[in-house]
Amino acid sequence: MNPVLKTVSSSSTGYFDEDVFGRICDAITDQGYIVLKNALPLDTLNHLFTGLIDSNPHQFDLAGIGREQDFHTNEFVRTDQIQWLEPDQPFASQYFAWIEELRLRLNRYLFLGLFDYECMFAHYPEGAFYKRHLDAFRGSTNRRLTTVLYLNPQWNPEDGGELLIYRKREKTPIETVIPEFGTLVVFLSEVFPHEVLPANKSRFSLTGWYRINEGLVI
Ligand SMILES: O=C(O)CCC(=O)C(=O)O
Ligand SMILES: [Fe+2]
Questions:
Q1: ipTM for the whole predicted complex goes beyond 0.90
Q2: Which ligand 1 atom is the nearest neighbour of the CA of 163?
Q3: Mind spelling out the 3-state secondary structure of 13-39?
Q4: What's the pLDDT at 137?
Q5: Are 209 and 145 in contact (CB under 8 A)?
Q6: Closest ligand relative to 196 C-alpha
Q7: pLDDT at 72
Q8: How many angstroms separate the alpha carbon of residue 94 from the centre of ligand 1?
């Protein structure tokens, strides 16, 4: 093997950067979250972006709060639109392979017991927002780890749309994330309140959750 490639392992769909997985596992252990630029291969990002721009905007539904019987929309809390992603969509296969590899590492090193993963494209039209919230839904604790991947080429700081991450009961954010193409955020879903500020143009993210295998706690 080429020594330059020694920290890179291959999969059926591409190459995994061991260093990136190690940094995510370390950060989740030490501080519960991480913000990383260019964590995923460019090829994987480009496939997702192609899938996103090919998708029919009418397939985006107004996002709701809560799940199943608890589901309702509330324009005072969030005004984004969403579309769930399925693993059998070809443009998403590399992404799901990467996510699965990360799941295995997190379980191996952190014993998180992550069982599966669900994700959605979210479209925030100009002016859309999502007020401060926690991702673990009321009545359910099975979302354990959140991932947010941004797919906005040529995003400038003055375009707004930042993700603010807080510690519970604190008003000053610990992180202000600019939603630039390729930036990935991973955090413990029940631990970090966060919010999306309005942007002055369309903003796209791919948000997902690793879940543990627990039933609803009602
Ligand atoms: O798009 C983002 O920056 C975060 C979205 C979010 O918090 C959510 O969908 O729960
Ligand atoms: Fe969220």
A1: yes
A2: 3
A3: CEEEEHHHHHHHHHHHHHCCEEEEECC
A4: 60
A5: yes
A6: 1
A7: 59
A8: 22
Q: What is the CATH number for 104?
A: 2.60.120.620
Structural domain boundaries enclosing 205: 3-212
122 Cα nearest atom in ligand 1: 1
pLDDT at position 65 is 57
Q: How many domains does the chain have?
A: 1
Residues with CB under 6 A from ligand 1: 122, 130, 135, 148, 163, 194, 196, 205, 207
- Ligand 1: centre distance to CA 133 (Å): 9
Choose between 9 and 33: higher pLDDT. 33
Length of the chain: 218
pLDDT for 58 equals 60
User: Which of the two residues, 57 and 194, has the higher pLDDT score?
Assistant: 194
Radius of gyration of the chain (CA): 17
